[in-house]
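FAQ: What does the model actually see?

It sees only this:
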Amino acid sequence: MRQKSRPRPPRHPRGPELPSRSTTQPEGGVTAGQRRTTGQDLHGDLPDALLTVRAGEGDDDAFAALVRRHGSRLLALAQRLLGNPTDAEDAVQDAFISAWRQLPEFHRDASFGTWMYRIVTNRCLNMQRLPRPLPLDTLPEPATADPGSSPPRVAESDATAAALSRALWDLGPELRACWILRELHGLTYAEIAHVVGCSEQTVRGRLFRARRALTEAMRPWH
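And it is asked to produce this:
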């Protein structure tokens, strides 16, 4: 009797196409990137769970649909953690390639989105262990000024945003990651614990310290 062979893992992709300014839809039209994918994205309405199964079986289009669905959020997370658009794109690109390779071992009852948050966050934390200059445009982006606002108010808003960026960078990678995942991406304590690889109690402690430090750092601006 012939033994049934195990399915092969998916082949290495040429590289997921990440969201970027060049693929953002302009007012009143569509981009070349959208024209390329409009007729090809036959998986757009499928849930993540089914897409991960198909991608794990070697379906390139299913994996591309996952990249399009989650890429923007992950790119925003990476840029907030690293403060550099180029480094952020590299981190997310590497994370998707790593995820592609690991899909055959992915637990089907897990959330693909949370899993990707973990891979991207770990990648960014590893990159942050290298000496890096202080980013001045990390978090968060200043709100668009009212056209009627006076120049002093606009300058004050920009200075406040810059001060918050410095205060966040001073938190250190672990506290900053927990704060960003909670306050800017809306993850639960349990999800953050899974992403950063610690207990919920540790997450709560890090968030408490991060909020206290930010409150103290931003006191002159209130």
